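Per reviewer request, we include the raw input and output of the structure prediction for the construct analysed in the revised manuscript.
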Amino acid sequence: MTRPRRPTTADLIEAVFDAGTYVSWDGPPIQVAEPGSTYAAELAAAAESSGVDEAIITGEGRIDGQRCAFIAGEFRFMAGSIGRAAAERVTLAFERATRERLPLFAAPSSGGTRMQEGTPAFATMVKITAAVAAYKKRHLPYITYLRHPTTGGVLASWGSLGHVTVAEPQATIGFLGARVYEALYGQPFPEEVQTAENYHEHGLVDAILPLEALKEAASRLLHLTMVPRDLDHVPSVPRVPLPDVPAWESITRSRRQDRPGVRALLKLGADEVLSLHGTGAGETDRSLLLALARFGETRCVVLGQDRRSERIEAPLSPSGLRVARRGMRLALDLDLPLVSLIDTGGAALSKEAEEGGLPGEIARSLFEMVALPVPTVCVLLGQGTGGGAIALMPADRVISAQHSWLSPLPPEGASAILYRTSERAPEMAELQRVRALDLLADGIIDRIVPEYPDAAEEPAAFCRRMGQAIAHELVELSAMTTSDRLEARRARFRAL
């Protein structure tokens, strides 16, 4: 495989930051080597050959006008290894970004801990991680760009803690050094494992991006997380009378293959979207979409059940709910509202789902959504079946499409349990009060978005109406104090 030319740190600065805005934060590195020692000579030689004074450089610049802190690894300096001086620079940069409330763009490139310094250098992973934790407590966005190579302690600390993580194409990314593995076990480490592409396939990075795509991605992330939230304009969403459509007709309409789902809603009803990928912990699930989005002027995290992917590939699995829980943590970390979109025929019913902890994942999703301090909006977009639906339902406001519905089982399943036949499904749908009009009357949902007469027949118009309804609820919720909103949420759940 032909490796691409690897961008230097100077290339990164030129590509990501507005021209002429980058300013270094670096002073002389702290002295860690005894004067006249072999290590001091190695440091001097590394500085001369690389043109930099340490394996880390830090500074700030503007990305489409937005100030942003910057940390980069310099592999030309002793293979980007992290000793105490480099660790101090990383820590100081996080501390300054925290004080000045700046977003941070990190571009590590490192072979790991500096062996010349041994355990004291290794222990700085703790110091750096503590600085990252303090930074993230301020709800500031942190994006990492994993460059070739990013390995060892750097990957196992600040390289893996970004809210959004992207990687350089064909980059080597991994924890265990291949040479170390071969020395210990007497066989080579599989080549295909420690690659950016493999990490993406396993949900460990959100995207593979070449240098020329970085600025746009970083700019979109900053725009979705740092731009002041305008609460002055509340979109008008009038409530209109709805026809008394039988439950079974709504269920039938919700199952149309051409009905707009989560991807259509984000494309047609949102004003801006940045898709993310996987759990960040080794799992993906295409039936659960995770994104940052903007409805009107309100930014949010979106969790969306993709019924089309669910139908083609597999039902919602435990890993899908773990993707959802990553989204909940992201909303908490960035202090953004959370929007969940329900459209599922039900969670997976299989040996793998049971052994993968599906019931526990449903419980943990419920638990985390109930307790989230940020504004939350749930949208019933189509089918709402079983634990897969209820796991994403706890919210301050619940909106439903006119022909959406909610049930512990498909009506056919309920009919089979009670009558040993699925033929009485329409009757069960009426008895169980699954349709939107019944959910509104029972206080389970707060608003119905009409369909004229069916979202599948007017997808663009429907998605725009739903997007406007979401924007309306987000603005109203964001205008409330946290204490008032959480008290209203507790009262809402208590009344169910």
